[in-house]
Amino acid sequence: MKSLWSDLDAQACIDQYTALGVPPELALRTYSARLLGANPKLVLHGGGNTSVKLTLTDVLGDAVRVLCVKGSGWDLATIEPAGHPAVRMESLHRLRQLDRLSDEAMVNALRTNLLDNTAPTPSVEALLHAYVSHTFIDHTHALAAIVIADQPDSETLCREVYGDEVVWVPYVMPGFELAQVVARTVETHPQAKGLLLAKHGLFSFGDTAKQSYERMIGFVTRAEDFIAARKAARGRDDGLLLATPGVTTAVVDADTATGTPGPAGVASMADVGPFLRGALADLAPPGSPQHWVLDLRADALALEFANGIGQTEVAQRGVATPDHVIRMKGRPLVLAAPLAGQLDAWTHDLQARLAGFVSQYQAYFERNNARVGGIKKMLDPLPRVIVLPGVGMVGVGKTAAEASVNADVMASWMEVVTDADACGTYEPVSEAHEFDMEYWSLEQAKLGKSAAKPLQGRVVVVTGAGSGIGAATARAFAAQGAELALLDVDAAAAQAVAKSIGRQALGLLCDVTDAASVQSAFAAVVQRFGGVDIVVSNAGVALPGGMLTLPDESLRQSFEVNFFAHQRVAQTAVTVMKQQRLGGVLLFNVSKQAVNPGPDFGAYGTSKAALLALVRQYALEHGKDGIRVNAVNADRIRSGLLNDATIALRAKARGLSEADYMGGNLLGQEVTAQDVAQAFVVSAQLPKTTGNVLTVDGGNVAAMLR
């Protein structure tokens, strides 16, 4: 591992923050913390913690020795000086005289000793940082170090790799007890430059930010070198044991596993994702979400792991470091390879294996809850990681962002398991320690308790999403917590809108007049998120002309885009929705022209009238599947179909100003794309409404439905 320290960048950070009144030491703490946080082999998603000891002035003007330690909710990769709240050191050291200190009392002590009571709550390992005398302290979950920490002889290996520079500490739950153990350890070993916490992670100390950071990099490099040498000596350069592709047993023995990855004829994630989502929904307990989002990892490591060691008992031993249990549920669900043409049998097997996973989790909970006095309430028992041979590894989450974080943690875990088994024996924490961490209130707090938005977990596809009504609709659904796939014949436009939304939104090329393009786009959506819940079929074309002189070509083109394209989208979407068995919503942009045709606009009006009939037909045929089908009839919306030039021509032809033309309705107000977007969002959330047409035109008597 290479040091990324730059004296020039460090000085620039000092200059930037000291100009704002930040002490140089805290500026350097910010700089080196970001270096650590930017490396996923050291820190992932808010993990790790860093600190610096310095002297500040309190409100009375007195000099106070403080510990500035990473606060709750901050990520080292993007941390600011405010992310290291200052705590009075003297009060923290007085706590050492106690025999025990509950987690709640410890957090209260940390908060009551903040210099600024509005600052974030300091890390649960703040006392540990306080009791080590060095000025700068870095703590990471470096993958290479965890490979050593997760060995049965990790204490011996620690001495072999680090000599007396790094002291081994047995596993202890983070908090007051661990802080006391570390305090005694560093007092007994004053020469130590770091700590290796068994089953946990790595600490480095230094008198300067650069010294502590570079010691961390050096320690990790030595661990990496040890792993490489040990694997080479054992003839295990790749570190992988490959199981038979398509194995049907949940777990196979690593010592007898053989074969090659990538069996021929394996179905894709696009084929199996909807069945996975449906099975998860079936076993979701009351009060738990039914709509889960999937995140497939199909890189070389993920595929080899899924086809090999991921199917073995080794991968069932537990998480690499205890705090990962809230992201991984302890161990993965192992499935059989989904062979193309045999998905019915595979789906039955999936349901049985998932039920077995849930049953095992419930037994794990009951055993350990009895051990701690029966005081815990069981979390949902669904897996967060899935081994899918021939396809890859899958992270599961309530949102795309959560599924992505879980998949990132999964990727780190895979690397640790692979290397730990290749150069020794993978031995993570015990089941009891795993449970204590999973059900630790301070650990669960990391997941946040914010209320779920109304459409959390719903995957929404919007066609014609590169501009106008489609873009506004995509943004409106995103605001309600949905995951977005934006389809447009202009891929760049769709991707630009997706980028503006962020939140894992996906922009895709899709020509809705091309069946293959529609199929490909939906396959990409399912590949990315696992399925589809809501479709807004919005793409359309407006061709002028009176019916008497209208060329057949224009009429056919209008029907191709405004009718047949919607049929293709609906057919594809309903197929996915029926596989999921979660119901679903189809929404169509119809237009007031379907019921109130305008002169010289027959191609548009007749094709939209046919679309309205299509809406009602789908509502009739798929209500039994729980699929609701509704339409929005809008009028005079500025968009690609009604651009500024067209508005000017129509207003002039009617002898009106543009404002009067656009506001020519009962309310006298122009209707916007955002108004139509809100109508789609409302329609998606009416649980017992189907076959409905919601009019958004400001009031047009001639277009009112009877």
Would you mind describing this structure in some detail?
It is a single chain. The protein is of the alpha/beta class and 706 residues long. The chain contains 24 helices and 18 strands. Strands 3-2-1-4-7-6-5 form a 7-stranded mixed β-sheet, with helices on both faces. The longest helix is centred in the middle third of the chain and has 29 residues, at 343-371. The radius of gyration is 30 Å and the shape is elongated. Mean pLDDT is 92; it is low at 238-262.
Secondary-structure topology with pairs:
Layout (H helix, E strand, L loop, with lengths): L6 H12 L5 H14 L11 E9 L5 E7 L16 E3 H6 L8 H10 L13 H6 L4 E5 L2 H7 L4 H9 L3 E4 L6 H13 L5 E4 L3 E6 L2 H25 L35 H15 L9 E5 L2 H8 L17 H4 L4 E2 L8 H29 L13 E4 L3 E6 L2 H24 L7 H8 L2 H4 L14 E5 L4 H12 L3 E6 L2 H11 L4 E4 L5 H15 L4 E4 L14 H29 L3 E6 L12 H21 L4 E8 L9 H10 L4 H5 L10 H12 L8 E4 L10
Helix pairs in contact: 1-2, 6-9, 6-14, 9-14, 10-13, 10-19, 10-20, 17-18, 17-24, 19-20, 20-21
Major sheet: arrangement of strands = 3-2-1-4-7-6-5
CATH superfamily of the largest domain: NAD(P)-binding Rossmann-like Domain
The 3D shape can be described as elongated
Report the CATH C-level class of the largest domain.
Alpha Beta
Count of DSSP strands: 18
CATH hierarchy: architecture of the largest domain:
3-Layer(aba) Sandwich
Mean pLDDT reading: 92
| Residue fraction in strands | 5-15%
